[in-house]
Amino acid sequence: MPGTGGIIATRRIVTDSATPGCRVIILTTFDTDEHVFAALRAGASGFLTKEVEPADLRRAVAAVAGGDALLSPGVTRRVIEQFAHRQGLAPGAGQRLAVLTSRELETVKLVALGLSNDEIAERLVISPLTAKTHITRAIAKLDVRDRVQLVILAYESGLIRPGA
Q1: Mind telling me which PROSITE patterns this protein's record contains (predicted)?
Q2: Whole-number Å distance between alpha carbons of 35 and 7
Q3: Residue 103: CA atoms inside 13 Å, Cβ hemisphere, count?
Q4: Which terminus, N or C, of the chain has the lesser number of Cβ atoms within 10 Å?
Q5: Helix spans in 28-127 (H)
Q6: CA distance 91 to 69
Q7: CB-CB contact of 26 with 6 (8 Å)
């Protein structure tokens, strides 16, 4: 992109009052931890490498448009573990979780472990819609943007530990 990079463009797009609620998926050849972290910090809701299959890209766009967040499967676990190791526990992150009900907290743990809404529903013996409702409420109460930010908070707070 002439004159700017994807990270700067992402930050501008997600903070621009002319594009409220706009969500960004980074599509790149770089899958280093540094690029992923920078993209997430800039506000990206998705991070995919250019090797993604067209059908998977379509699903990713639909998922992000629907409010979910998405990382390439090959980078998800690696990035979460690296982020947790590098960042350590964030001051005050644990107290932020106090606003959640016990069921919402349990749901956040399962999101942080990488489970889908259907898998969370099965594990908690609830409907997928109820699982999505718990996730949506947790996102609102914690004032985070999406599932990725929810996972980051779960690791920063110590709710989940790398390798759990």
Answers
A1: HTH_LUXR_2, RESPONSE_REGULATORY
A2: 8
A3: 14
A4: N
A5: 33-42, 54-65, 73-87, 93-96, 102-112, 117-124
A6: 25
A7: yes
Q: Which two tokens stand for residue 57?
A: 């890209």
Q: What is the DSSP string of 109-146?
A: HHHHTT--HHHHHHHHTS-HHHHHHHHHHHHHHHT-SS
Phi, psi of 49 (to 5 degrees): -90, 160
Kindly state the tokens that stand for 37.
């972290």
pLDDT, tens digit, for every residue of 23-78?
Answer: 899 998 887 777 887 888 888 888 888 888 898 899 889 888 887 778 776 666 66
Higher pLDDT, 33 or 117: 117
Cβ neighbour number for residue 99 with a 10 Å cutoff: 14
Backbone conformation region of residue 39, classed left if phi is above 0, alpha if psi is from -120 to 50, else beta: alpha
CA–CA separation, 148 vs 154, rounded Å? 10
User: What amino acid is encoded at 141 in this protein?
Assistant: K
